[in-house]
Amino acid sequence: MRQIVLLLLFITVACTAQTGQTALTRLRCEYRENPLGIDATVPRLSWEITSNKRNVMQQAYQIMVASSLESLKADKADLWNSGKVSSDQSLGVTYAGKPLETGNACFWKVKVWTSDGKESAWSEPGSWTMGLLQPSDWQAVWIGLDSAFAGDRPTDTFTRLSARYLRKDFRLPKKVKKATAYISGVGLYELYLNGSKTGKDVLAPGPTEYNKRTFYNTYDVTSQLQQGDNAIGAILGNGRYFSMRGNGSGLPPVTNFGYPKMICQLNVVYEDGSTDRIVTDNSWKVTAAGPVGANNEYDGEEYDATKEMPGWSKPGFNAASWLPVQLVSKPGELLVAQMNNNIRVMDTVKALQVKEIKPGVFIYDMGQNFVGWVRLKVKGASGTQVALRFAERLNDDGSLYMANLRSAKVTDKYTLSGKDTEEWEPRFTYHGFRYVEVTGYPGKPDLSAIEGRVVYDDMATTGHFETSNEVINQIYKNAYWGIRGNYRGMPTDCPQRDERMGWLGDRAVGARGESFIFDNHLLYAKWLQDIEDAQTPAGSVPDVAPTYWRMYSDNMTWPAAYLIIANLLYEQYGDDQPIRKHYASMKKWMAYMKDKYMKEYILTKDTYGDWCMPPESPELIHSKDPARKTAGDFLGTAFYYHLLTLMERFATITGNTADVASFKALGENVKMAFNKKFLNQEGGYYANNTPTANIFSLAYQLAPEDKQKQVFQHIADKTLNDYKGHISTGLVGAEWLMRTLTNYGRGDIAYQLATNTTYPSWGYMAKEGATTIWELWNGNTADPAMNSGNHVMLLGDLVVWYYQHLGAIQPDPDAPGFKKIIMKPLIAGDLKKADASYHSGYGMIRSNWEKTDKSFKWRISVPVNTHATVYVPAKDNKNIKEGGKPLADNKDVKFLRMEDGYAVYEIPSGDYEILQDN
């Protein structure tokens, strides 16, 4: 039985089995679920095929797209009928139908022909709608109030600005058939219709480089409207649009875009086919006298329930005291559809313990460091104020450890209305925390008084990883919590202190490891646009994007993430669009750095070095020992060379053939100059012989072939002897540490680093009670100015190594998107088993192996329309069985060779149980 899983650019659809025909069941979305309001006028369609048979490949497909569900069901594809197309492509098939226009509803289905000669049934329908594609489609205008209200402090160091409430009454004279809301509110918004909130998104829309690009979101609001009187309302929070800090904060230059503002358009279609529009204009009214008196992502939210305005977003509310809105300027150049999902409440956490450390001061332990807020349940007298303060750690006396939060006040305040039991959670702030201090609570709160709300970008968890080693399992769990906690519409460095920025260097390689755990495709594609939007006219790329801190230090290692992540999206998801979209910008940056900082083919500039390598003293943040530091010109040149190889690849993909030769020639000159300057020919090491220096000479293929073994031996010797079998790198060196050790035959050293529980190591963090990943290897002893308890930058390539080497799930870089899979398990140390899975664009890949003294058992799943190169640990290929029979007898499996203790096979799609007896 064959199954097809249908994906549109951003679609999930459900299918049901049909008796006697191909069953169409588990449908998933490559990007988003049945998207509304996209502005990709030529969307790409993808689907996923599953089968209980082996060796199934797609040979052809047919797609139908119609403007109504009824037409599609009748096979009347009035938008596009591809006909039967001979192709094995099932990812990123380009729509080639009639031009799509504003507001179009599109319904589609697909069927395929496979290598066994069978034709599948049609999938169940998927759908998408188009957004407002032209500026002229917007009849609405931007509204707001470009001034402060009483109690606001917009120019203080600790800025304070109340939420703005906006509303309008309107009348719909006929029965509504369809209604769609298009809205952007910056910094943040919540939309209400007739008293109820629209959608489940929080902290919307996504953060952008606001002076260049602002996102709008689209909602189907048909069910929220009625014939007759209606009301529309919105609450505007500050987010990153209105600055969280003013002058004198001591922070880097902070960008303030202005006061909150919004644009909203409600397109209504009546049952008789006529249409109407409700738009933001000067008929709206605004107030800041509502209950949200302050909101700031660093400092928290203040809510006074005694100031609630019952019915404020319902028709007939008396808004006589409200002010007329102002027509205000647009935030930036572009208003575009948001193509990545918004943030949502994705999980809940129950408190494990509550202690009263002194009268009226209660400390809750949530048991896990996470990101979001708490929902408060309380009953008491009107005017009683409960304060909630958040921290990652406790002092010895049981009070909150606040020193590492710097100036962030991280305090939510709720003033009771006095009506029965009240429940409240904030709208426009978030916190990174494990512990919550509750003060002012009437009576003695129990464990049910608060509930943790885990908040991050709405994305699927695509990976699973577990081993027989509990240290590795705990580190993986810590990584999982830290990664999802730092998805905030951009990948942030930390969620708790007065920073929370999208540092480029933190995610250069970490993003690849994350992509095994989460479907972060859309988030990182969006972030690449933030980076281009922040690029200066001269070509400089910032250290932080969006540039809420304006930092342009012109280094190589941090902005390198721009190219490295574009390459990741290509290899992991089979998506070449980011490469095509940003090619010119990337080329511009490479030229800028070359022209400004390259001398005799050496890139002389780097700012941060191997950031946060273990220092020689537990109190230090950064090492002062020159022997531990890797020179900036070494790192700058090594990275520049690596990026030239990526640009050569990108030029090939984009058809810029003249650039291929140019990048290749420059790369050859850079490589020659690099080895002339940094290679110690006699000693066989690079620069000052740090493991980081030697790692990059190998990882980036800069070392001459006859020197590679000698260079690698220095890495092994330094790690085992000078650093006593512990990690020596910072975030830059860690980007290639584990894979380089493994690729050069010392997976045993990588395994030792992965399982250490003494300082410095990931296991040390866990042993010391961490439930996420620290910013510093010595995060429990270093100066609190920089010891975040929830950073992911020091993970480096650890999660990549987990999946690709221990879990044996790796994409072939020459067959992107896991069209071809490399499965080569690392057998190291005391590891007895590993269980890994990853849901790729083609389907679920599984690898579950178990080793005993007598055998190696391995269960693997290879998705339909792919094949795998499988490495079975063995001395020869004579005693390898599959399903109880010699693997060599399987007509679908091809033996390739013996290689370094592995029998290598080419294996088609299907489920296999491989057994190798010693």
TrEMBL record:
InterPro entries assigned to the protein according to its UniProt record, in alphabetical order:
6-hairpin_glycosidase_sf (IPR008928), 6hp_glycosidase-like_sf (IPR012341), Alpha_rhamnosid (IPR016007), Bac_rhamnosid6H (IPR035396), Bac_rhamnosid_C (IPR035398), Bac_rhamnosid_N (IPR013737), Ig-like_fold (IPR013783), Rhamnosid_concanavalin (IPR008902)
Domain Bacterial alpha-L-rhamnosidase N-terminal, chain residue ranges per copy: 174-346
The chain positions of domain Alpha-L-rhamnosidase six-hairpin glycosidase read 461-805
Reaction(s) this enzyme catalyzes, per UniProt: Hydrolysis of terminal non-reducing alpha-L-rhamnose residues in alpha-L-rhamnosides
Signal peptide range in chain numbering? 1-17
Top EC class per UniProt? hydrolase
* Enzyme Commission identifier(s): 3.2.1.40
Question: What keywords would UniProt list here?
Answer: Hydrolase, Signal
Domain spans labelled Alpha-L-rhamnosidase C-terminal: 813-884
Domain Alpha-L-rhamnosidase concanavalin-like residue range list: 356-456
**GO molecular function (one):** hydrolase activity
Q: What name does this protein carry? A: alpha-L-rhamnosidase
- Which organism's genome codes for this protein? Chitinophaga oryzae
